[in-house]
Design goal:
single chain, 95 residues, alpha+beta, Archaeosine Trna-guanine Transglycosylase, Chain: A, domain 4, five-stranded mixed sheet, 5 strands, globular
């Protein structure tokens, strides 16, 4: 099982945890292109902060594609992003 570790701001962390937000976005830049297009991630571990005792959970990553995201969920206006599609929470916190 390959895990992608990502840190989020509280707003996006809480929206994903509640099930309201079903996608996470990353900019189309060489770093993310190499990471997301050359490797397959089964799970994403979201953290809300950097301390060792911060809130975190793991969720299924069902797919990744380059497309336009939903602005209300943090995607930039009229700009392609990598969309990480999220499935079920599999470990850690549940809302």
């Amino acid at each position: 099982m390959k895990i992608l570790y990502l840190t989020l701001k509280k707003k996006w962390f809480d929206m994903i945890l509640s099930g309201e937000k079903k996608e996470e976005y990353r900019e189309v830049k060489p770093y993310w292109s190499k990471r997301l297009l050359t490797e397959h991630f089964d799970v994403i571990e979201f953290r809300n902060g950097y301390s060792k005792d911060c809130r975190k959970f793991r969720i299924e990553c069902t797919a990744v594609e380059k497309a336009f995201g939903i602005i209300e969920w943090g995607a930039p206006w009229n700009k392609l992003v990598y969309i990480l599609y999220l499935g079920k929470i599999i470990e850690g916190m549940k809302s």
